[in-house]
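hi got a favour to ask and not much time before my train. below you get a single protein, a line of residues and a line of whole numbers that encode the local backbone shape. could you go over both lines and see whether the tokens make sense for that sequence. a few lines back from you is plenty, here it is:
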Amino acid sequence: MTWQLLRASRWVLWLAFLGYCFYVHIFREGQYNQFGHLPTSTELTIFGLANAAVFVGLLEMMMRERAGIPRPSYGSSRQADPELRDRA
């Protein structure tokens, strides 16, 4: 259950990050100050959302290992041997 919650929150954080970046890009006239820079709060929001998504992704990987959910096998058509996986 915790793994699924972390997985969903990771995707929500990435979507919030991308949505906020598109918002800043589309409405750029009201976002920049007189020097052409983003305000500190906007920069911190963009930086914080991206870092939170990465941190939650790391927690998700940790919870997947603790729950015993097998890792996805990208590019492989067969499942890895459990004996080899446990020795690594």
